[in-house]
Amino acid sequence: MHRADRRNEPVSLLLLDVDHFKHFNDSFGHAAGYQILCYLGEVLRHNTRGADIVARYGGEEFAVLLPGTGTPEATRCADNLRQMASRMSIAWEGRVLPQLTVSVGVSACPDDGRELNALINAADGALYRAKHSGRNRVFTVQQALTV
């Protein structure tokens, strides 16, 4: 965040949440759920740039920090990752697990805040709207404010 501020460059944050993860865990077990999270982490890591930071944020949530990226590019990246997640095919104990989907909230500095906590809160609000608008979708802060 400090580097982006010094260089007057944008930085974006994606918060991704696996849709209906509790139901998945209840149906297939926590070990299968953990496997899904590992695969999803790999999909995120292999489909972002080297300068991007991918981290498990908590539970079934991931955060992706995109330096030098404004809202339009971050939204395209988020939708690409959402589509890739829905195409994952994971075998577990002799069977293919059901397709999963993710919802994504997008925030960007400086538009949605200049500090990390502000970006997190903004992306979390956009993620909340994505989840409550049908899941398996990407919402920016601006979209979340108009819904």
Structural descriptors:
five-stranded mixed sheet; 147 residues; two-stranded antiparallel ribbon; 48% helix; alpha+beta
Cα-atom radius of gyration? 15 Å
Give the averaged pLDDT, no decimals: 93
Lateral arrangement of strands in the main beta sheet: 2-3-1-6-7
Percent in strands: 15-25%
Q: Number of helical segments?
A: 6
Largest sheet: 5 strands, mixed
Can you write the helix and strand succession as a string? HEHHEEHEEEHEH
> Looking at the chains present, what oligomeric state does this protein adopt?
single chain
Helical amount among residues, as a percent range? 40-55%
Supply the helix-strand structural class: alpha+beta
Shape: globular
Verbal overview:
- This protein is α+β, with helices and mostly antiparallel strands and 147 residues long.
- It is built from six helices and seven strands; from the N terminus they run αβααββαβββαβα.
- The strands form two sheets. It has a five-stranded mixed sheet with strand order 2-3-1-6-7.
- Strand 6 (102-109), helix 5 and strand 7 form a beta-alpha-beta unit.
- Helix 2 (21-28) crosses helix 3.
- The longest helix is centred in the first third of the chain and has 17 residues, at 30-46.
- The two termini are 29 Å apart.
